[in-house]
Amino acid sequence: MLTRTDLDHTMFASIGSPAVRWRISDSLIPYDEAMAVMDAEVAKIADGTADELVWLLEHPPLYTAGTSADSADLIEPDRFPVYATGRGGEYTYHGPGQRVAYVMLDLKRRRQDVRAYVAALEEVIIRCLGAMNVRGERREDRVGVWVRRPDRPHLPDGTMAEDKIAALGIRLRRWVSFHGLSLNVDPDLSHFTGIVPCGISAYGVTSLMDLGLPVMMTDVDIRLRQAFEEVFGPTVSDGTS
User: Fold this and answer.
1) Which end of the chain has fewer surrounding CB within 10 Å, N or C?
2) What are the CA-CA distances from residue 96 to residues 43, 56, 58 (Å)?
3) Which residues participate in catalysis according to the annotation?
């Protein structure tokens, strides 16, 4: 059986379609507003009346519950607003200092393989981090991107401590993807303590700042776009809001 590590991440270039629109929002976007925009965009992309879109933004502090979320993993239900969402996965935190990328691609034009698509999104994050001299890694039993922490005590089983630096959660409608990924640049990491992130309690959460890399969000966006284009093909600017 092929693992996500074995999959070819370079087979998602679009066939015969325009470049992907690339949109960046500078203000905090309320979650319900973002979902409404994404629903509308996905419908237009599926109907062939709009080009594909990647939307970069930040949310105010909130928790989201994926389709596999266990209520026991919501430790502080009154701390921040909690939104049920149709993406895969469990509980996730979003907030200022975290770059969220909502990725709306028509996989019918690319490759109708969900596991390969998840691996391709992980590859984007890994390449983005690599451009900043951070080694991100995937784990076959855990979706997302992880970094080893040799500076931390080993886990009870003797393995090296690891922290999650990026989360993924996707959904498909008519083979158009939405939701996407979140990369921790400089969020308040204490906000993650209100949940068991992604249902995994044995590992921690980190950020670029926590790793000693104080970078601007604009610098991260440049590297994220470069990595995305390496995996998925060209993009064009669609404005800043």
Assistant:
1) N
2) 28, 12, 6
3) 198
